Amino acid sequence: MNKLRLDNPNLTFGFIGFGLIGGSVARALRALYPSSRILVMNRTVSHVRKALDDGIADTVSGTIDGTFQACDVIFICTPVARTGDCLQKLGGIVRPDAILTDVGSVKSAICRCAEELGLSDVFIGGHPMAGSERTGYENSSAGLLKDRPYVLTPSAGILKDAKEKLEFMKGLIQRMGSRVMILTPEEHDLAVAGISHLPHMAAASLVRTVMESDTADRMMFSLASSGFLDTTRIAASSSEMWEQIAQLNPEAISRMLTLYIGSLVKLRDAIDTGHFEEVGKLFDLVRPYREALNRRQASSPEN
C-alpha cells in the first residue's frame, strides 16, 4: 500500500538539521499528524533534546544512519553549504517510494547536485519563505509557516515519472498553512536574489558606509533612530550563512547588485546635476508597489 497519502496518520518524517525552520515544520506536522513518527538528526544533539521533551521528536541522533530509511519524507534543514553532503549520505538510505526535500534559500546548485547523485526521482527542492532574527529550535513555531509562500522546485524526474510525489508535497504544505508556489530553480534563485539576498547585502553595505563615515565621537551612531534601524535590521544576520549563499547563487546576486548599483548611480547623478525632481519621481514610482505590499501584509490571516 502506498504510504504517501495525506490521510495516512502514521507517516514517518525525518529532519536533518533542526533549527528554526526545521523545528517549525516539525511542529506543524506534529499538529497535523499526532501519531506520526519524527526522527531528528542534529550534529549537536544537546541543542535539540528539548524536542523530545516537547513531544515533537520521537528520536534524536547525531549522525545520518539507516534509521532514516523508515522515513516517508526527509527534510534537509542544514545550512546550504552542507546540503550536498547530506544528499550524498542520504542517497543510499532514502527509499525509492519516499520523498527527499530541503528548505534552503538557493535551489539551482542544490537541484543540480541531487540530479548528479541520481536522486531526481525522489528529490523535490523546497524553500519555505519564512524566518526570524531569532534562530534555533527553541524559537521555532508552527505559526511561522502560516500563510507564507513555500516554493517547490521539482526535478525533471519528479515531473516526468513521479508527479504523485509533487501532489503529495503540495497537499502537505497546504495543510501546514503555507501557500505553494511551483518554480524552476532558476526562477526561484533570481527572485530571492532580489527580495532577500540583495536586501541583506545592501543593508550590510549601508551599515558599513555609515560606520566608516562616522566621526571619532560616533555622532552618526548617537543620532541613528528608527529609519536607520528598520532599514538595516537584517544586517545583523549570520556572516557564515551569507558567505555560503553568495557562493551558491553568484550569478543571480551579481545581476541584482548590478541593477541596484545602476539605480543608485542614476540617483547620485541626478543630485550632482541639480535634477532634484528625479528624487521625487523615484519615490512616486515605487510608492504604489510598496503600498501594495503593505496591504497584502495587513490582509494576511496571521495579522
Structure write-up:
There is one protein chain. The model has no long low-confidence stretch (mean pLDDT 93). The relative contact order is 0.10. The chain has helices at 20-32, 50-53, 83-90, 108-116, 156-161, 163-175, 185-213, 219-223, 226-232, 239-248, 250-272, 277-298; strands at 12-16, 37-41, 59-61, 73-76, 99-102, 123-128, 149-154, 179-182. It is an alpha/beta fold and 303 residues long. The protein has an eight-stranded mixed β-sheet with strand order 3-2-1-4-5-6-7-8, with helices on both faces. It folds into two domains: 12-182, 3-Layer(aba) Sandwich (Rossmann fold); 188-298, 6-phosphogluconate dehydrogenase C-terminal fold, CATH 1.10.3660.10. Helix content is 49%, strand content 12%. Strand 4, helix 3 and strand 5 (99-102) form a beta-alpha-beta unit.
